[in-house]
Amino acid sequence: MTRWRVAGINFDHMHMGDLLREVFNHPDAEIAAIYDPTPGRMAAAIANFNIHEDRVFTDLDECLEKSKPDLAVICAATAAHADHVERVAKHKVHVLVEKPFAASVAEADRMIQAMKAAGRKLAINWPLAWYPCHVTTKRLIDEGAIGDVIEVHFYDGNRGPLYHLADKVEVTAEEVEAAKPSSWWYKRASGGGSLLDYLGYGVTLGTWFLDGDQPIEVTSVVDETPGIEVDQHSVTVCRYMRGLSKFETRWGTFSDPWTQQPQPKCGFVVIGTQGTLSSYDYEPIVTIQTREQPAHRAIAADVLPAGRRAPVEYMLDCIANDTEVTGPLSPALSRIGQQITDSAVLSAREKRTVALLP
Fold it and tell me: Which of 130, 127, 138 is CA-nearest to residue 299?
């Protein structure tokens, strides 16, 4: 079997630790290199995965030239995604970018063009895309279980991005408050805020459920907390030809959904012409009701097949078989999500409904 070489690029996003763990546990992959301009941010990964010092870099080009990876996993701050992808693309390396796609459609287009010019694959990792319940929901929709989809309702978030590290390691409230002033998550220029953190999840998977349909216009409202320059709560309403859908993001849920679902529950409710589906994060079931059987019925979530269970595994499978990146991870679908997100940002800033941005 081919031994795939994977490089971890930038540790701004705490999901880097989770993605490196996936590489570490993959039978046919290895951590070929890690890079971050700040050495201390790599310390936990070095210890967790026993990474030798000759695979640790603070210069990006040197990292890529010496390690020669097949795949680069990028976990930079959102506003730095385009710059990182363009630099990696010059080395002819496939790229997996941790969500969200970018800070704007213009930057997303830069990423798409750079990877197209390099002749390499680009995927945007939306962790919700790997939840069996949401994959099952898409299957049921495609099978016509609830007729034509006319509404998607999304509510998602967590207590806040600083409350947990890689592997969901807990952080105290005191440590969170101390970290906020220096964290990119709370800086507008870096692409911080709950809207940019979570809206992409909802509208990208929502677009998947809606079979690629795009809204006509977008209305978004965000909270305005004194002393915090980014939002911690947003509500976005999209008007489609088929009707209205709602996408709500929240930093400050009562509990984190991976430990105890808050109320409202985090996840999706999808309404069709012939029925409804609820698909909540981390739950092993999807709940359906139809006109023929209005009572709620639980359907066990599908068991995902090998190669389709997690992002690194999926990307290596696409590379090995030279298949296209599809679904929510595809640049085409994620770009529609970025259009909606950009429109929501504009709507919230100008406090008005806007047409979907191109």
Answer: 138
